[in-house]
Amino acid sequence: MDDDTQELIAIQEELERLGDRLRKIFPSTHPQFDDVFEDVGAAGYYLREAGYRLESVLKTVQGDSAASSSSSSV
């Protein structure tokens, strides 16, 4: 696994941790939950969306790496 792939995986994992932290800070029992629900929900959505996009990038990068390594071994 190359450095770029490891870096992308680390970013994706950090996004997941940030989403988890948001949910821990503002659970539905939090006294200000109603005040922040929309914003926290939107932030969580965009964090997940960024994670999905990174997953797509990883598949592309890993596919390109596999293709270039198999073609270079020919």
Offer a few descriptive terms.
74 residues; mainly alpha; 2 helices; 85% helix
How many E-type strands?
0
Fraction of residues in β-strands: under 5%
User: Termini, distance in Å?
Assistant: 20 Å
Whole-number radius of gyration?
18 Å
- On the 0-100 scale, what is the average pLDDT? 87
The level of helicity is: over 70%
Provide the low-confidence segments as ranges. Answer: none
Task: Explain the overall architecture.
The protein is mostly helical. It has two helices and no strands. Helix 1 runs antiparallel to helix 2.
Describe the structure concisely.
This protein is mainly alpha-helical and 74 residues long. 85% of the residues lie in helices and 0% in strands.
Question: What is the topology?
Answer:
Layout: H1 3-25, H2 33-72
